[in-house]
Amino acid sequence: MSTETGPSAETERRQAGRPRSERADKAIVEATLDLLAEESGVAGVSIEAVAARAGVGKTTIYRRWPSKEALIVHALGAVKEPLPEPSGRSAREDLTAIARRLAGRRHSRYSRCFWNVTGSAEKYPDLYARYQQDVIEPRREIIRRVIRHGIETGELRADLDVEVVLSLLLGSLTARRPKETVPAGYAEAAVDTLLRGIGTGPR
Description:
elongated
């Protein structure tokens, strides 16, 4: 896969210390998402195209991100709503709070961006791997912590495979088309149904 590279080290040194512009950052991220959401997806994103749409110079982008892959991953992470920090009071409470956030209303443009990156995993494996590592894995680790804590406290069965439970929960909440909405109460029902199988209480 070809990767666009930034300006020379000498250019970077001359630009060091210049204050970052929040307005420019936002314009660059929005332009990246706009391009990524279009039909051409990842293929339609280039530093030149982003710069033109954001109204900035290419050097402004390269000062912040060394490649289009780094820019795309940053843009995707910027629009992911953070998952709630687990309270630790109970696995059900924490999983339900997370499930509600995951099942919340999604902006159709952002959904198309995520689908376009996921659907291009075979063509752009490095981009997809970086997206998984930098954006998805930290969120998955929060859920793993909840599951592990539930096992430690005895709320969840000791013989559970954490990765299987994680996949079951996420699959029930995220396997949706971009414009598809989740019915009210679905997140709570998904967690309660899952807990009947993995919990230590009555089933």
